[in-house]
Amino acid sequence: MVKDLLNKSAILQRDKCSYAIVPQTPAGIVSPGELQRIVDVARKYGVEVLKFTSAQRIAIVGLKEEDLDNAWLELEMEPASAIGKCVRSIKVCPGTTFCKRAQQDAVSLGSIIDEKYHGVQLPSKFKMAVSGCMNSCSEPAVKDIGIMGTPRGYTVMVGGNAGIRPRLGDVISEGLNETEVLELIEKIIGMYKGYAKRYRIGRLIDDMGLDNFKKELGLI
Question: Could you give the CA distance from residue 29 to residue 198 in angstroms, rounded to a whole number?
Answer without folding.
Answer: 31
